[in-house]
Structure formats: structure tokens, C-alpha cells
Amino acid sequence: MVATFNPAVGSHVWVEDPDEAWLDGEVVEINGDQIKVLCASGKQVVVKDSNIYPKDVEAPASGVEDMTRLAYLHEPGVLQNLQSRYDINEIYTYTGSILIAVNPFRRLPHLYSSHMMTQYKGASLGELSPHPFAVADAAYRQMVNEGVSQSILVSGESGAGKTESTKLLMRYLAFMGGRGAATEGRTVEQKVLESNPVLEAFGNAKTVKNNNSSRFGKFVEIQFDQSGRISGAAIRTYLLERSRVCQVSDPERNYHCFYMLCAAPEEDAKKFKLGDPKIYHYLNQSKCIQLDAMNDAEEYHATKKAMDVVGISSEEQDAIFRVVASILHLGNIEFAKGTEIDSSIPRDEKSWFHLKTAAELLMCNEKSLEDSLCKRIMATRDETITKTLDPEAALLSRDALAKVMYSRLFDWLVEKINTSIGQDPDSKYLIGVLDIYGFESFKTNSFEQFCINLTNEKLQQHFNQHVFKMEQEEYKKEEINWSYIEFVDNQDILDLIEKKPGGIIALLDEACMFPRSTHETFAQKLYQTYKNHKRFTKPKLARSDFTICHYAGDVTYQTELFLDKNKDYVIAEHQALLNASTCSFVANLFPPVSDDSKQSKFSSIGTRFKQQLVSLLEILNTTEPHYIRCIKPNNLLKPGIFENQNVLQQLRCGGVMEAIRISCAGYPTRKHFDEFLNRFGIIAPQVLDKNSNEPAACKKLLDKAGLEGYQIGKSKVFLRAGQMADLDTRRTEILGRSASIIQRKVRSYLAQKTFIQLRISATQIQAVCRGYLARSIYEGMRREAAALKIQRDLRKFLARKAYTELFSATILIQAGMRGMVSRKELCLRRQTKAATIIQTRCRVYLARLHYRKLKKAAITTQCAWRGKVARKELKNLKMAARETGALQEAKNKLEKQVEELTWRLQLEKRMRTDLEEAKKQENAKYESSLEEIQNKFKETEALLIKEREAAKTVSEVLPIIKEVPVVDQELMEKLTNENEKLKGMVSSLEIKIDETAKELHETARISQDRLKQALAAESKVAKLKTAMQRLEEKISDMETEKQIMLQQTILNTPVKSVAGHPPTATIKNLENGHRTNLENQFNEVEVNGNAGKSAAERQLENVDTLIDCVKENIGFSNGKPIAAFTIYKCLLHWKCFESEKTSAFDRLIEMIGSAIENEDDNGHLAYWLTNTSALLFLLQKSLKPAGAGATASKKPPITTSLFGRMALSFRSSPNLAAAAEAAALAVIRPVEAKYPALLFKQQLAAYVEKIFGMIRDNLKKELSALISMCIQAPRISKGGIQRSARSLGKDSPAIHWQSIIDGLNSLLAILKDNYVPLVLIQKIHTQTFSFVNVQLFNSLLLRKECCTFSNGEFVKSGLAELELWCGQVNEYAGPSWDELKHIRQAVGFLVIHQKYRVSYDDIVHDLCPILSVQQLYRICTLYWDDCYNTRSVSQEVISSMRALMTEESNDADSNSFLLDDNSSIPFSIDEISNSMHEKDFASVKPAKELLENPEFVFLH
User: Fold this and answer.
1) Where residue 987 falls among pLDDT bands split at 50, 70, 90?
2) What strand order describes the sheet that includes 545-550?
3) DSSP secondary-structure letter at 1403?
4) What are residue 1120's DSSP bridge partners?
5) Average pLDDT over residues 1160-1164
């Protein structure tokens, strides 16, 4: 594969081994062309230099994703790379554009989630980790962009995972081109996917190598329209293994459908007369009946469900299963010799039972079925001869019938699926997915293996041509000089097999057409024809076998059954029998044949299969191919086992080695400039000049090394075979010399260091000795000086002691004398101070006594004068109250309260008695009482009118109560005089009580009589007007504006309804000097009544006016949206919330929907987000479901009597002002909402969520392009040369992080300008940071080049910028920083030094507690240090993670190591409500445009 290289002692090489395929070792001795190698296993071998290959010791432990990037592209390198990746569960690897898939034999659901499909959508091939999704995406993108149909060829031996890979490809293509035309409720892609279970049930079986082996080839054409959506599909099948129906070898199984039907529910089993599968001959030939990993009963239901999806009706399903059951019963029919010679009949009762059952299931005649199995009709020119069959021939006839029935059934299923899916005749492009059997070579190879290997030979030729083409395109792309590369062409093998005439298939067809031909004559014909062919040999000691030298190896075929298996015709008796079936399904499987076909019964399976291959190749040649090679790592079908010899053989059979050989024929080693310089720059350090570019540096280095034949491309260096090894040898030599120099320097340094330490130690010992002697001399001198100092200090102490005693005695005598003198002086001062205090107290007492007398006299005088002034002022105030009706002054309030108490005592006594009498009279004499009331009412009509007008005037001018004159002026004057006198008597403010006693008594009598009459009349009126009063009370409660309430109080007077006559239009002078024209007021009532006839039209116009106003940006008032407040006030006034039917809500929702059509304008969206959330808050606080307040206590009816209302007014007058103020501030009013209002609230909440999502998605879209630039740092090669292909320009890499922050700041400014609620701003930032976390973290896991030390530092610096931003806008960021926990911990792990010292517990509990085992495992295996070349974590940690992953592999909860982007709505209505307050809207002003409209006067 590569040219022989010259190894040196110490070189790491690969040597061939018969057991392990290849072993790695180190060269220990070289003797000419004999090289001794010490293998890593400890074994020493001696090999020739031509049989060893160099090993790349710097290859990453986790392997490379694309094997074309291997330093040495040869068999051991490829095998080692696949094994390294398989050990870390990386089962996919590229070889250029070819994907190699190694079957893991375990569930890896995290690799195939819908989120993973989203990640690969639009990613270029090689950008992310190898995956079938990447191949499917590349095919889809190429089809859409270039308008060329594509094909994906999936191959591999049985059990390699072809079918599963095909399912993944179809899933991804359905994901990309979904939403196609639906048929009967199911889309095309759903039917294509659901066709797999049906085809697997009838076309798959357990083999020695695979529990779910496809026993047919399948080519799925997925058709697309111009826009890239799936418009149709078609499934083509090839070479179903019909012989398996009748012959099954142990431990294999028959087709799955037989076992599923036997495991069907009891009622179905009875319908088809089936039982235990062990009793059926076609199933019990093998001991394997049950599969551990497959539940046949569940698979039966899954298959029926899939049949429903693809459009197979229940009647057709019953017919299908009847045919399957009849085949099982046919297999149990055995034959014995009949009465005639060479005849046969069913052997026993059991056989007759199964014959009868099969006939019933096929709905044909039992006798006809027996005859078709035991007899043949020979037609001659003159007569028809019936020939009987012996038991052996009858068994063959039985098996032939079973095989042809199953084959026809399978063909019908494929045709039905195609019909159900529907093909698009106008399809522009297609993507074909070919799931074909791989190369097969067994101990016994029959006709099936011959056809399978022919298929693989054809596909291998197509594959070789494609690889050669791709190789030449690579050279053209890099603009290098190249010459034609020769590759092994297998055309001679294809000519040997399919050439006409003279090919093996042609000779086989010729043998089949002669009745007397046998497999031995056929073999002899082959021997004679191809005895000199280099690809054809005859095995020794074999009479009828032959061997063909295929591209993947020699295969020996046994010809015993070649002739029988090549014949494809239906026995005439079988055709007639089944065509005559009363079951239309069975009859349609065997339609009547034409006369021409009757004359030519023979049909060759080999020829037909060859024609199918030609048709398939024609389709593939018109498409752009993509290849997936599936590899089975072991024959035990168990995970974690990698058999080198087995895998290597499959790589050869799959053509991967041939592709590598083609690559090696040209330039097998291709290195990017920076990688090449980083690795081999040490050979010529002087070429790494910062001022030179990379291509020039690479050329200088290669010239310096003396290599020839290399090529310098646009981005890569292309090396011939063996040149990489030469460079590595030179590099190893330089590193070896450098190591010697380093060792010499280190030894010199260590010796010098030892000498210096000895010298320092000797110097230190000398210094210690000298110091000891000096300290001894110094100690003697110090002791002598200390003795002298002690003597001196003792003398000084004795002298000081004598002086201190003398001094203390003197001080003591002086202190005693001074104290005696001071005590005498203190006593004198105390006596003087006491005398002064006594004098002071005496003078104060006398002065206070005089002052109190003066103050008492002054207060008495002032009280008398103030009393006089107050009485005079009281008199003036009374006069002013009668003239102006103003009773709000404080003194008048006191007077009125006293008067009210007096009147209430009298009225309650009288009203209690009168009301009891009125109730008794009303119950007994309703009619007589009504006439008496009407007569009395005529007398008091004028008085009642005036009283009610006065009462209404009192309610209008709350809390000011105005006195209204009664119609009887004389009586009113008397009442007024008597009232004044009574007030004077109660308040003790008048002195003339005795003079007015008689007048008061007379006035009280007259008032009492009139009061009885008024109360009786009003009690009846109150009962008759109960409904009207309740309606008026409800309207009065809902009206908040003073003017509207004023008008309604005047216009809705109850006098009209009682008397039946309209009130007299009078003009009166009120006491405040104003005049009221009642006639004009009633004219206004009539106008309003006429206007009420078109209230609906007026409301529609008002709604239009409102919408025209608020659909524009009318701004904010005190930080709250004007539009939302205006809409709420209008809906509240129009009573829309209580309406059972209104169009206002629909109009508003439509207006909001049209306003947010521009999804890209964040400013406009933020404005409407604020308005909708504010309006939602107002509705949340205001609307109460209907019936919620049903249990609440009702308001007592308001008394309508004059004195009752006066008494109520007096009682409530102190609190009226506060109530009015509270009503003015109460912006939000609870309302019992009907269904339209509650629906409007739900729709509004949906729009809040929608607008929130639009703003969030706009920010994500803006940041997504920047995030992709922030995940990977710019790569710098040695010598400071930056890769031009990935250069980020002269700008700092931090500019992308700054752009993200600028985007966040820009949106934050927009949200703040539009007063978006704080909770929504925080949620937007939280979900955005979560999106950043998901994108960065997933990119880290999917891109190996991102898991580096330098990249970790780059991302960490960017995250620091985001953390600084969160600190600056902490109020608005909320918990956003916590959302970056995954990428923070992952990056923190990447930048740790000495990872190999970190234990698993430290990683899980301290460094990365939030990351799962799968995520940690992937980071650890992908990590590589591009700065300091340090190691990743230890193998013990990797093993621990792998063991945990194995335990959790079947856990559905751990199905993905990627993070999902959370696009849900992260808030509730209650959170929005809690973030606002009702008082915030108290100062909001409605829209100015509406305030000028008279219809919206209620907004004032």
C-alpha cells in the first residue's frame, strides 16, 4: 500500500500477525532486510523490511474522524483508527466522502434524536462528527442546490447494520423533505417509513450472522418536487430468498411473518387454524423458534398497524395472513405411495387435515389441490395425458407451490406499498437509498450467493469509478499536476459471469432449457469453457464445484441446486388451481396467462436478476452516489468486541481497502499547511519565518528535506507514498539528537548543581563553627557587664527608696491640712445656696398665684365674648343655610347631627307602628288600600313632587344637602319655623323655648298626619317599583362619572311610574341661585331614547374609532401603555365584559394580530408586548367568572322616603368625601365576566406568549451567526503563521463576543424604551442565555477541533465578557448567568492542567457536577491539547465512564448527550400580574384623540 520505508532502531512499526491481523511494536535490531521487532504484547518477531509499515505515534488516542487525515494511510492504520473510535462508542468514521459504520450491537439513542437531526441540518460534510445524517444532508443539499438526483448505497454483510442505517437515512430525508402531499391522512414520508416494518416482517429472517437479516435487496426511490419536498416514492426489491420458505438450517429461522402469525391473539389464531410453531414442518427444521430480543406477538400488532398506515385494508390483511397460514399447512402435508405405480397420496389423517385446511384458507377445491400436488397433465397434439407423481416428486411440487405463493405475495406487498405511497410522474429529482446484501462467502455457496456476489461486483466497479473520480476532483480542486491513476478493474469478472453469449449465466440458462441437463453436466460445461480463464478455477477433488476469484477473495460455489433455483416458472396445475380460487386476493396473485407465455414456460431468474442490475446501474449512473459501508465488528453479535481479522476482511470486501489503494496510488498523505508545519517544522526551523506564507514555508521545508514528487496545493501538501515515513524518520532522528543534547545538558546541570550544594554545605559548616566560638567569648563578656550593671542598679534602688519614704510623709501632712480648710469652705457654700433656693421658690409661688388669677379672669371674659360672637355667627349661618343650602361647615354639621338624632327617634317610633298597620292592610285589603292611596295621593301630589325633587337634589349634590321648599309654602314656613325652634330647644342655643311651645305642638301634629300619608303611599310605590329601583341601583353603581350619574338621578324620577302622568314642567329657583329647566331635561331624555334604538350601530362605530386610535403607537403615560388603559376603560364602560355576545373582542384580537405581522421589528413587537401584557393584567384583576359572587350579600334597598334619605345622608355624611376619593382612584372594577370576555382573555394571553416568542426568536436568530464564530478560536501554526482559510482577519477574536453583547444591549434598550415588564425582560434574557449555552455546548461535543486547551481559553474569555455584562444589568439579566452552567463547566474542564491526575469523583462532584456521563465521556475522548501537548484524563477514568454508559445504555431518559433548546413559554399570567400594581394605573391618562370625541366623554 505504501512504498517501503527505511526504519531505524527505535522506530514504531506495524507487523502482520495471523491472529490479530496487525501488531504494533518497536524496531530493536536491523540485519539487512531482516528486522527484529519487539511487539507491545512482549513477543519478538523477525520480519522482512517489505512487510512492515510505519506507525504514527502522534495519532490521537481517540482516532481521527476522517481517515484521509491519517499520517499513514494503510491497513493497520485504518484498522487501528476504527478500533480506537469503536472503543469510545464512536461508531462512524469517514474515509473521504465514504462513511464507515461499525455496528455497536447496543442501543445508542442519543445519536439519533430529532435534536441531532436539527444539528446536522445544513452542516457541510465533515463539519460535525461522522453520521448517516451528514451523508443524507449532503445528498439532499446537493440535490436542491445543483439540481442533480442523488443515491446513497448502503452495503455490508449480514448483521452489519445496513437496514438500520437505511432507516436512519429515510428518517432524515423525511425530516428534511417532509410535509409533502398527504394521502388518506398520511403523508408520503410516513408511508415510506412505515413500509419498513411490513417488508421486514415478510422479507427478513434470522440467520447465523444476524437476527434480523434482510433476505432481499431494496432500492427506495424518494421523489422530490421543485421546492425540495417529498412528492412520491417507490420501492424496488431484488432477489428474495425463496428457498428459505421450505428449507431452514439450524440455528436460523424462517421469515418473521410465520412466527408472528403463530403468536397472534387467540381469535386470529383460530381464524387461521394455527397453533404452536413447533408443529409446522417449515418452522421446526430449526431448533430456534423464539428470539430473545423479539416479541412475536408485539411484532404482529406492529405489522398490522404498519399495514394500516401504508393503505392495506383489513380484508386484504386477512387474505394475506390466510395465504401465509396456508403455506404453513401445506408444509405439513406428507405423501405416501399410492395404489398405482409412481403415484402418491396424502400419508395420514394429519396430512389430510392440513390439506383440507390449506384448501379452506385458499378458498379452492380440496380435490383440485390434491391433484395439483400429486399429478401433472401433459398436453400433446392429439390428447392430454395425466401423469402421477411419486411421493418425492409430490413433496417437490408442494414446496414449489409454497415458494411461488410466498414470492407472489411478497411482490404484491411491494406493489401495494408503491401504489399506496404514490409515485410522482412530475418529480424533478430523486434520492435513492440502496440497501443491498454484502459480499458473501460461506462453506456452502449456492445460487443465491452467486447472484449476491455478482451484485457486489457490479457495485464495486461503480464504487471504484466513483472513488477514482473523487480522487481526481480533489487534485483539480487543489490545482496540482496529476497523471492518470491505474486501479484494478473487475470488468473481466463481470464478463465471466454475465457476458452473452459465453457467460456463466448464459450457460446456466442454456442448461436449464434442456430437460436432461443436470448440475454435473452444467459444471463440466463450465470447466471446458473457462479452463484458461484467470478468474475461474476448478477445486481439486470436486466434481461439480467451481471457484471464482472475486475482488474480495476466492469463493467456491456448489452447483447442486443452481438449475432448480434458476428456473422461474409456475406449474400449470398450480396456476389453474389458484386462479380458480373464490378468494379474489388469491386469484389476483395468479392471473391467467396468455397463450404465448403458456408455450414458453421457462423463465430465468439469473437473466431477470441481471436485467434488474442493469436497470439499477442505469439509475445509479444518472445520480451522484454516496456510500455507507457497514461493518460487523464480531460474529458473536455482542457489544465491545472488535475482531481485527473479521473487520479487515469486511473492509476488503466492502472496497474500502481498494479505495485506500487508489488513494495510495496518487498522493496518500494530505496535510493542511498548518498541520504539516506544526509536525515537521523542527526539521528546518529556519523556514518558519513569520514574514513568509505557509505554501512557501512548506515548499522550503520539503526542498530542505530533499524530497521529490510532492505537490503543493491551495490548502494542503500532497506527499507520495513513503515520503511521510521519510519525514517522520528524519524528525525522529532530530528528536533523538535533541534528546541526547538535552540529556547531556541535564546531566551537566545536575553535576554542577551537586557541586554547588557541596560547596555551600562546607561554607555553612565553617560559618557554624566560627559562630559558636564567637558566641562563647561574647557570653563571658556579657556576664561581666551584667554583674556591674546589677551592682549599680542596687545602689540606685536603696537611695531612691529612702527618698520616696520622706517625700510620701511630707505629701500626706500637706494633704490633711488642705482637706480640713476645703471642708470648712464647702459647708459655708452649701448654707448660702440653700438660703438662695428658698427665696427663689417663694418668689415663684407668689408670681404664679398672681398670674393664675389674671388668666382666669381673661378666659372668663374671652368665653363670654366668644359666646356672644358665636351666637351671632350661628344666627348668620342659619340664615345663610336657608338661602344657599350649604351645610358643609363644621358648626352646621354638628347642628344637623343633633337634629337628625331628634327626628330619627320620633320617626322610628311612628314608622314602626305605621308600617305594621300598612302590611296588615295590604295583605287583607289590597284593592281597597290601593284606591284609598290613590285618593290620598291626589291631595298630596304637589307635596310629593316637591319632596322628591328635594330628595333628588340632595343626592345630586352629595355630600352637600340642600333644603327644598315644599309646594305648600305656608305649611313649609311653619315647619321651618317649628324646626328652627326645635333645633334651638335641642341645642340649647335659643332662649325662647317657652314662647314657641304651643306652635311647635301644633306643627308637630300637622307634620305627623302628613307623614303617615306620605309613608303609606311611598311604601306601596316602593313595592311596585322594586325591579326599577334595582336596575337604577346597578346603573348607578357602574357609572363612575359625576355628570352621567347626575343626569340619570334627575331623569329616572319614580313619580312618573306611580302616578301614570308625566311630571309638570316647572321652573324653580334653587337656593344656590341656579335655575333648572325640567322641560329641557325631559326633551334630552326623549333624544336619548331615540338614540338608543341604534345602540348597536353606535357601539360598532365607537369600536372602529377606538381601534383606529390605538392601532398606532400612542405612547405611554407615567410608564404605562395608554392604548391598553384606553381599551380597558372603553370595554368596561360599554359593558362588553358582561355581554353574552359582542364583536368588540374579535375586532381587537384581529387588530393585534395584524399589528404584529412584521416579525423583524423588535421595537414594534416590544410596544405591543407591553400593551398586551398590561391589558392582560387589567383583565386578570377585573374579570371574575360568572356566578363567583352569587353568595355575596346583596345591598339593602335604598329607602326612597324624604326623611329616610335625609337620615341616611346625615349618617353617611362624614365618610362621603373619602368614599368619593376612593371611587375616583379605583381604576380596576371587579366584573362578572361572560364567556366572550373569558375567551378574549385567553386569546390575549396567547398573543402575549406569541409576541414574547417572536422577540426571543429574533434575538436568537441574530446571535446564532455570531455564536458559530465564538466556539472556535483562530488556529495559529508554528512560526506565527495564521491559517488563511480560517483566519478571522486582523480584528481581535473578542469582536464576536462584543457583537453578542452589543446585540443584547440593543434589545435591552428597546425593551426599556417600551416599558416592557421586568419579568418578561428577565425571561427573554434567560432563554437567550440558555440558547447560547445549548449552541456552544453542542458545538463543543460535535466538533473535535473545539475540544482543545486553546479553544477552552478562548471561550472562557468570551464567557467572562458575558458575566461582566450580567453584572452591569443585573436587574434585567436576572438568573441568566446560571443558564450557562453546562458550557462554563465544560470550558473550565478544558483549561485544567494535568487532567490525568484528576479522578472521576473530582470531575463528577467538583468540576462538572451538572454534566452527564455521556457528555463527560465525549469531552474527555475528544480533548487534545494543541498548546502544551498534555494528556487527557487517565484510562481508569475513561473505563469508569464507559462502564457507567454501558449500564445506562438502555435507559430511555439518557437518550442524548446533546442539549435541547427550550422554546417553551417560561412565565404565567400570575407572574405578569404580580409584577404590576393597580395604583400604577391611577395616574394614566387616556388617549388624547378620544378625549375630544363626545362619544368618549366618560374617559374624562
Assistant:
1) low
2) 536-537, 545-550, 553-558
3) I
4) 1117
5) 85
Active site amino acids: 158-159, 163, 210, 213-214, 438, 440
pLDDT at 1089: 42
pLDDT tens digits, 1373-1388:
888 899 999 999 999 8
- For the chain, the average pLDDT equals 80
How far is it, in rounded angstroms, from Cα 127 to Cα 131? 11
The C-alpha cell at 313 is 385494508
Average pLDDT over residues 773-777: 93
Task: State yes or no: 338 annotated in a binding site.
Answer: no
Quick one: pLDDT band at residue 587, thresholds 50, 70, 90?
very high
End-to-end CA distance of the chain: 94
DSSP 1126-1164: HHHHHHHHTTGGG-SS-SHHHHHHHHHHHHT--TT-HHH
Contact 1419, 1386 (CB under 8 A): yes
* Model pTM above 0.70: no
Nearest to 253 by CA among 245, 261, 242, 241: 245
- The number of beta carbons lying within 10 Å of the beta carbon of residue 957 is 15
Phi, psi (5° rounding) for residue 1252?
-60, -45
* 254 belongs to an annotated ligand binding site: no
d(Cα 350, Cα 370) in Å, to the nearest integer? 14
List, as one string, the DSSP characters of 402-431: HHHHHHHHHHHHHHHHHHHH---TT--EEE
Predicted pLDDT of residue 359: 94
**Does the annotation flag 852 for ligand binding?**
no
Whole-angstrom distance, CA of residue 71 vs CA of residue 66: 11
The amino acid at residue 1049 is T
**Cβ burial 1282-1303 (10 Å sphere, 16+ → b, else e):** bbeeeeeeeeebeebbebbbee
Nearest-10 Cα torsion for 341, 347, 349, 353 = -100
Q: How confident is the model over 24-54, as pLDDT tens digits?
A: 999 999 888 889 999 988 889 999 888 888 9
Closest to 330 (Cα-Cα) out of 358, 372, 371: 358
Q: Which amino acid is at 628?
A: I
- 1126 annotated ligand-binding residue: no
Q: How far is CA 221 from CA 224, 230, 456, 614, 1411, in A?
A: 10, 11, 20, 16, 42
Report CA-CA distances (Å) from 615 to 428, 448, 608, 621, 1169.
19, 19, 11, 10, 61
Note the helical H segments in 655-722: 656-665, 673-680, 694-705
Helix (H) or strand (E) holding 160, with range, is: none
Three-state DSSP class for 159?
A: coil
CA dist., res. 1478 & res. 1487, Å (int): 19
| Bridge partner residues of 548 (DSSP) | 536, 555
| 162 appears as a binding residue in the annotation | yes
Instruction: Give residue 827's pLDDT band: very low, low, confident or very high (50, 70, 90).
Output: very high
Q: Could you give all domains of the chain from N- to C-terminal order, each with its CATH number?
A: 161-217+225-430 (1.20.120.720), 667-721 (3.30.70.1590), 890-1089 (no CATH), 1251-1478 (1.10.357.150)
List, in sequence order, every beta strand (DSSP E) within 602-641.
Answer: 624-631
Of the ranges 107-116, 249-258, 494-503, 1183-1192, which one carries the lowest mean pLDDT score? 1183-1192
Residue 326, H or E segment: helix 314-331
Within 10 angstroms of residue 338's Cβ, the number of other Cβ atoms is: 17
1344, burial (CB in 10 Å: exposed 0-12, middle 13-18, buried 19+): buried
**With bands split at pLDDT 50, 70 and 90, how would you rate the model's confidence at 157?**
confident
| Highest mean pLDDT out of 773-787, 864-878, 896-910, 1408-1422 | 773-787
Nearest alpha-carbon partner for 1307 in 1257, 1359, 1265, 1270: 1257
State mean pLDDT over 123-138: 90
Under 8 Å between Cβ of 172 and 163: no
Is 124 labelled as part of a ligand binding site? no
